[in-house]
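Form P-L/3: holo structure prediction, ligand flavin-adenine dinucleotide.
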Amino acid sequence: MTAAAQTTATHTTAPISGWGGYPTQEAQVITPLSLSAYKTYIQQEEVVIARGKGRSYGDSANAATVLQTTYCDHFIAFDTATGLLTVEAGVTLRDILKVTVKHGWFLPVTPGTSFVTVGGAIASDVHGKNHHVAGTLGQHVVSITMLLGTGETVTTSPTQLPDLFHATCGGMGLTGVILTATIQLIPIKSAFITQKTIKAGSLEEACEAFETTSSSTYSVAWIDCLSTGKHLGRNVLMVGDHADNGGLDLTIKEPITIPIYTPAALLSSVTMRAFNTAYWAKAAHNKSQTISLLPYFYPLDAIGGWNKLYGKAGFLQYQFVLPKTDGVANARKMLTQIAQSGAGSFLAVLKQFGPANQNLLSFPIEGYTLALDFKMSPSVIDLLHRLDDMVADMGGRVYLTKDAVMREASFKATYPKWQEFEAVRHKYGAIGKFASAQSQRLGLA
Ligand SMILES: Cc1cc2nc3c(=O)[nH]c(=O)nc-3n(C[C@H](O)[C@H](O)[C@H](O)COP(=O)(O)OP(=O)(O)OC[C@H]3O[C@@H](n4cnc5c(N)ncnc54)[C@H](O)[C@@H]3O)c2cc1C
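OUTPUT (holo model):
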């Protein structure tokens, strides 16, 4: 390491993992102090991957050397008249909301946690509860500046180097390092959401309710995965719209933190069945209420380190999407298979997706997506491989930002644009420079 390099970044060696805690890897963590410092490390290090907050669940931000974006967290421009926002890639969605909500602007698309960086969210082309009306975050990105493997900094947008843009949104950091991004925010009149809760006795009822409530901006269903037989798939659907009243003051409560790993046995099927039964009984059908933005969009953010509830071995989150045609019947088959395995999570999240976009490795396709957690064990990996085969046969795919175990063949069968993606990486000097544990597992160059 040169003396100059030492002063432009912090360096540590530490075990790193994604939010699921599996797999972990010993890594050199380089955290550049400024945007201009990245070039040094791109040139100095053989192979790197960008890393944001490590909120992806698996190994997409794991590598022997990672460039962490923590210090590149500055706001560059915010036009309060138009809602056009330019930030460095290490800014978190939470940071953005603290600044923009009071001026009447909200994120066009947001995942279920605010503790993610803009760079990570674009690289995953994240979706929210409004995919059926708004698509993914990438569809609201106006432009990106990024550092290529050649050391060159370029600006890319849907009209400027569009091939690079469509490979970078959803490209899991494999095209280069996103340095800054300009995003078009959406106008809001209030820091509140009007939410309606609908209890649905089955998956079929939930999907019908998605259709009848499709004019609502946001919708998501929590499925009880421990109920079987006629109750299989019973769920609580929550639809929401931005409220008109209540003012623009954002209520921010910092999370209470789970300080230590809990024994994984705490999450036994007995405790979880009791939780689900209570949750189902408590939910009121057709109840409307007004909720502040943060607890509505990020209920899990209230408990810092909730991932530790799964114990030291960690957990795998499995999110797949199934095409709309036969989607409900196929989702039922998947849930049945998971229930029979006895390994499934106690709750699953069901969302509807609108049409796919042009981004080469973007996850959503029109249909239904389910996300479940599995406590880590060797038999769970085998189960997920079997589920991967079922998803592929059904014409669906698994979300890369959640994945930790997918095999190369499943990836290549379900992401048909992977060769186009590799061609763009080759064109812009990314091959051999940007790689993660995930990209190596999936057979990307
Ligand atoms: C509780 C919870 C709820 C979630 N809910 C949703 C949801 O509803 N919808 C959804 O779509 N996702 C969801 N996610 C996933 C999460 O939004 C993504 O994994 C996101 O990418 C994490 O951002 P990060 O900053 O932690 O990125 P990391 O985990 O650090 O990195 C993720 C990927 O982005 C790349 N990357 C990071 N920064 C850059 C950069 N500057 N330049 C280039 N590449 C970069 C990394 O190389 C890696 O491939 C959820 C995650 C959690 C923990």
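COMMENT: The chain has a mean pLDDT of 92.
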